[in-house]
Amino acid sequence: MNWMQVEEYLKSDNRCILPLGSTEQHAHLSLCVDNILPSKLAHDAVGDSGVPVFPVLPYGITPYFRAYPGSINIRVQTYLAIVRDILDDLHEQGFRRILIVNGHGGNTPAQGFTAEWMADHPGTQVKFHNWWNAPQVWAKVQATDSNASHASWMENFPWTRLDGVEMPDTEKTGVDFDYMRLLGPAALREYLGEGNFGGKFQRPDADMQAIWDVAVAETRALLEKGWAE
To answer: Which of 111, 127, 194, 202 could cysteine-pair with 27, CB 3.0–4.6 Å?
Structure first.
């Protein structure tokens, strides 16, 4: 869209989607998994409705992965300042119903921040959607395979894989999260190895498509319903 198209759109609708991501290790998958998934999900959920999907914010809060080359961290205070600036501009331009589709668990400080931001901007609503552990998606993941986590099969979609990279045909035991949270970046890399938190590295594409279909439907419902009058 160009600016004139957005201006025309705002005459009849005030919804938009802001995807939040992260550039970080995902074992054998792309460093951009957390950017690819919320962006594609937003576009798939919007369909032909015309609701604008803004470019994904490609860097997030991921200090624990700094020892993995290519993983880029933004400090919490910096990140929240960026999110504030984006929301301020969307509000100023007339967007009043903003769906944030978050692709990275480390970004959750922004979820609490949005409540604070809304209190300072009466009349503008923000929904914060952690798509991967939303009720319907998480139920589908658990029904498919309960051993699922970061960089495991549950993030291995055809659009997050890398050409020429083969997945190990093994299943990794789940990590000790309480222990892991105490480790610095170098020690965490030594503990995790390739980076999978637990589970198989890949499942059949049919399983992944079934999960994706649930994710699209759940996200679309948030976009279309449940806004305060």
So the answer is: 194
